[in-house]
Amino acid sequence: MLINGIEIDLAKLEKPLLLVKEDEELLFRQLIQSTFEHELIQCQLALSTRKTISLVKDFWLAMYKDREKLYINSEHALLHPIRLIIFELVTQDDYFKRLSKKSFGDEWLSLIYAVVLLQFVLQWIKERFSDNEEVYEALILLYINSDDNVDDQTSPSREQSIGQAIAVKAIRSEVRENSQEFASLLYQTYNFLHYLHDIEEEKETNKLPSIKNVDDTLNRFYKKRYTTNKSTITG
């Protein structure tokens, strides 16, 4: 499927971090394909690569399913340490838990929450490490499609493993040292998702169009945050 000008096979995403049933895999594929068909592409960081769409699926599962029935697939997690640290830091936050309570059992609402949340988190990470060449070299694969044909079951090279380890340590340290700012990011994202939900109820439309054509709203929202001086958040 052509996504943001790049051909991505939605049937060949990276292996999920969570244990997932075949019917859940199929459901996500149907949801995300329908999302792209409706031109819901404002969140370009979250929906631009095979890796980020795989992370959307991780968040979607964590919001859609009962938390008591979520289990990390340790074999897959070892292959994707950067995805894992982002997933863990976000899902452990209270605001994520509040969102997951609201979206539990609702496949569309879970997808909307997952996409918007990941957009803001990836933008924050991108900003924090854009001037750190060592870390950014490891992170850049989240933002570009150059590795989309790589077999993600293959063990990374020694250099890649070292780079991933450095990035994981840096992300964990950055969140710990700026915990208030990271919490503020998730809090504001939580509020923004409430805003989108209110728009949906006011228009009395189905859930899919509720975040269609919200590029300006996303940008206005993000400009209010003190961590950015960029004019846009969509790439």
UniProtKB/TrEMBL annotation:
Domain of life: Bacteria
Protein name: Uncharacterized protein
Species lineage: Bacteria, Bacillati, Bacillota, Bacilli, Bacillales
